[in-house]
User: Fold this.
Amino acid sequence: MPSRTRKFRGSRTHGRGIKAGRGAGKQGGRGNAGLHKYKFKSMLIYAPDHFGRHGFQRPPKIVAQPISLNVGQLLDYVPYLRAAGAVELKGTEYVANLAKAGIDRLLGGGTPTGKWSVYVAHATKHAGEKVTLLKEPPAGPPGAT
Assistant:
């Protein structure tokens, strides 16, 4: 008995009709083929948001990206704060003006080494529990701006 392929030699479609024998024939194409044509109604029912752009993204230029610092990192940043003239040691307590050093937020991660009094624009509740937050920037040495 000859094989099926052998049996159909000379036949143009091998018994499959015109289109069924070609790739993804009877199913109307592969994947999302035809969503703007013959599968349009099913697209409207099952995936109405498939086409088009959705949502809004703010321009990166105007999105605020605050510079943050954890209270556990304060001692590591003392050299940078000194260079910016934003920290001084009063007895055993550090008094720092983080806004002067360009730091916008103080976060509550870690444990501060020593006592700290800090002025910063924004601080989390946990940061406020771990250090003393100042309401206004500390007065610098006379003549400093």
Observations:
- The first strand starts at residue 68 and ends at 70.
- The two ends are 102 Å apart (CA to CA).
- The first helix runs from residue 4 to 7.
